[in-house]
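Many introductory courses stop at the sequence. We go one step further.
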Amino acid sequence: MIKKITFSLLVALGCTSAFAAYADEATPPTPNNSDVNLTAPSQEGSWSLGLQMNYLQPNTAFDYDVETIQLADGNPQFKTDTVNTDYNLGWGADVTYHFANTSRDLTWAYTHLSTNNSNSGADTSARVKSDYNAADFIFGQVMAIGDRFNVHPFVGLRYAGIDYKTRVQNNNVYADGALIEAIAYENTESHFQGLGPRFGSDVAVNLGSGFSLQGTLGMSLLVGSLDPRLSLSTSMNTNQPNPTTKVVPETDAKLGAMYTIDFNSGYSVGLEAGYQVSNYFGAVANSSSSITDTSTDYNNFFMQGPYARLQLDIA
């Protein structure tokens, strides 16, 4: 796994060097249409500080039991017990340095989300917890297309840690019609940590009077360790197989609107709101407590929801 992570680092650093070399070249060629110019605008050395609140819903519902209900006519009715995942508050922070006399920048960003949802049935109850952390270290460059459009391609590294836990508790355990245990539980855990190259682009459309549209499309390829675990109240041993080396692709996108207030003292404040989605493919080991029939041992870790962001630019 160390060799694969090292390779990912070399790929990302190589891409970054190539990107930096391109930025030192002359201004890219101008399209045939003389009314639209593609330029790499020069800027003063400055800092951007961002704080973001996320309201995200991760993954899908967790089905853990089927209850049999006898109707008055004697026919059975089946009810699926489900833990529905709610929207939860998360947060993110980022710091960007804009290099003087260039259009390049360097960004560090961090995102966190924790969830805790539960449900109780007649004989069983269940709880689902997740903990998500991600950190980015990326290099980017602003390219202006005319007066209204800016694109900001970026390349760098992403680290992500995803913990996903389920607990199913049976309130009564029977054998041959006799109660043998009042409470039994089954815990399943999935722990993933990965590091790899990240690339993508931001796009901004200037609408005038301080308003703009903001969009981002990003992708990552993480190489790391996936560690599933299972523990039962009826067993003295915990099933802890060796961690598996796994490659997890990731894609994310967001779209929002921003209003910026410029001050004469060399700083500005931006307020942004929009919607975002993110998906880590195969990053969660399937829970052994799930009654859903799946054809794979892994599930995606998917998040979606609105966000609000505050940005301070200091020249």
